[in-house]
Recover the amino acids of this structure.
């Protein structure tokens, strides 16, 4: 299970656009 | 084609739709200790998307708590200072009652976005960080 920080970081990254 | 950095000047959304744009805007915000505003904005978007994509209820609750603890609970933090008291207590109630909803951070995200559009974003377009890049 991810730590809260990992979960948060993954969440932020998931919302960002993918590389051009 | 239009170079990306000219698109960034069209709107905040154009800027946040481009990885390099995000990176540069984050650098700018970091100089003023405001990078959390951007991270929070993306965290809210990611949280909303989680609903359809995957995720047990447990995971959603854990993530909602993580966002709440990191950005809202600390009254000295930049995000917490910028969000209205009523919005903060609404989020707090959702977390405490374990009533997580995909839209629970929507109002807070809108408030932060409005502030970025009215302040940080226009300043960014005039900043050395942006001008040097262009």
């Amino acid at each position: 299970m991810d730590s809260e920080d990992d979960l948060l970081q993954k969440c932020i990254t998931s919302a960002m656009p993918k590389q051009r | 084609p239009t170079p990306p950095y000219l698109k960034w000047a069209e709107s905040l959304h154009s800027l946040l739709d481009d990885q390099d744009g995000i990176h540069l805007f984050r650098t700018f915000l970091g100089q003023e200790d405001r990078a959390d505003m951007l991270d929070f904005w993306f965290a809210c978007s990611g949280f909303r998307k989680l609903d359809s994509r995957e995720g047990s209820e447990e995971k959603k609750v854990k993530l909602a708590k993580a966002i709440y603890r990191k950005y809202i609970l600390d009254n000295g933090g930049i995000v917490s200072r910028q969000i209205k008291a009523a919005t903060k207590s609404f989020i707090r109630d959702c977390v405490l009652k374990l009533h997580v909803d995909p839209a629970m951070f929507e109002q807070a995200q809108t408030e932060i976005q409005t502030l970025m559009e009215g302040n940080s974003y226009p300043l960014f377009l005039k900043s050395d960080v942006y001008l040097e890049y262009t």
The CA atoms of residues 6 and 17 of chain A lie 19 Å apart. Residues 4-15 of chain A form the longest helix (12 residues). The mean pLDDT of chain A is 87. The radius of gyration of chain A is 10 Å.
